[in-house]
Amino acid sequence: MFSIILSLVLLVSNPSEKIKVKDPWMRVSAKGQSSALFMKIENNGEVADTLYKVEGNISQKIEIHETYQKDDMMGMREVGFVVINPKSTFELKPRHHHIMLIKLNQDLKKGDEHEFTLHFKKAGVIKIKAKVDEMKMPKSQHVH
Questions:
Q1: DSSP H or E run through 116
Q2: Residue 19 and residue 41: Cα distance in Å, rounded?
Q3: Is the separation of the CB atoms in 21 and 118 below 8 Å?
């Protein structure tokens, strides 16, 4: 009886079920260059969770970055983690927070798919597959 109750508690409180990764994609790039991984991370839980590490064999280095603006200059810098608040979605997107893929081991061609492992403090390990796509430009930045 105890094992049934414990199983039900674990089933109901499984943290990885509370974190959902949606629409993961990477931008096209060439071997030796950098690219970025983007996605939406949905936290359906009652407490915040933290993405603190991303692993994959696509590049020599993988870092969580943010884009920032100082005066009239924009830059990127590594951050150790991103917090996904409860009942919210955190979007890793171009010109904001993103996952940098540094020194690619191969070309990233449109349509290719690669695996990554995301590490969360509460949800643990979540494996995803991300497709390679062209960089999507916001309509306000589209130039003819």
A1: strand 113-120
A2: 7
A3: yes
pLDDT digits (tens, 9 = 90+) for 68-123: 888 888 889 999 899 999 999 999 999 999 999 999 999 999 999 999 999 999 99
Distances in Å between the Cα of 22 and the Cα atoms of 12, 44, 79, 93, 103 are 22, 13, 22, 12, 25
Give me the mean pLDDT over the 59-74 stretch: 92
Alpha carbon distance, N-terminus to C-terminus of the chain: 68
Q: Which domains does the chain have, with CATH numbers?
A: 15-133 (2.60.40.1890)
Judged against a pLDDT cut of 80, whether residue 129 lies above it is answered with: yes
| DSSP bridge pairs for 108 | 29
Query: What is the number of other CB atoms lying within 10 angstroms of the CB of residue 96?
Result: 13
Alpha helices in 14-126 (DSSP H): 15-18
Please tell me the predicted confidence (pLDDT) of residue 139. Answer: 53
Q: Which residues contact 137 (CB under 8 A, 6 or more apart)?
A: none
